[in-house]
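Exercise 4. Each item below gives a protein and its sequence. For each, produce the structure-token representation.

Item: Putative phage protein (Lactococcus garvieae UNIUD074).
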Amino acid sequence: MKYLFAQPAKKRFAWELRTAIKSLTDLGVKKSDIVLLFAEEDQSVVNDFSDYDIHVYPDERFDKSYIPSIRPYLWWKFLSEDEEREQETYVYLDSDTVVLDLSIFNLRPTKSRWYCSDTVGYLGYRYIQSVTNSQIVFEAMTEAIKVPQPWIESIEKNSGGAQWVIKSPKAGYWHDVYVNSIVLYRALEPLDTSLQKWTAEMWAQLWTMYHY
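Answer:
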């Protein structure tokens, strides 16, 4: 099992990463099992983490205006380099995470069943229906990612995100998440709504699964 983080090589993420990584190594995770994906920016940040499995990529996104899209973009680049990486099991974490107990990751994900944190309160169907101009927003969202509205309602209880345990992720899936996150954010940005637009990348990751 690998523990993976993806972010720009910025100092603002460095202290978060140090804390997150320390929480893992204190629990016995090997440094070689900690994978850090960076978008090129500040080489000094990359140098600070040379003890870990580091991969650095130029930021060649077609649209850089939506910052969180860098995360699925980095996943895509990482998996595209080596097909063997698509056979691995990963714990996918945010840099601002502190892990207190590794046993929470003792799960059995499969190619078609991944596990994640409970984020239904701000990703689920009922949340979307509770925001201002909800119907316009919902139609824009489902059109952007090309998913049927009844399907979104049917996965209400499984509308998770944030921290993931995933098995055999495919490069093509992460490419689509990267593109869909930008397309979705563009669709949401001009709308007058109380929806948390900045979490478009989380919906993209969850809803793109419909196509796989």
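Check: The domain at 2-211 is CATH 3.90.550.10 (Spore Coat Polysaccharide Biosynthesis Protein SpsA; Chain A).
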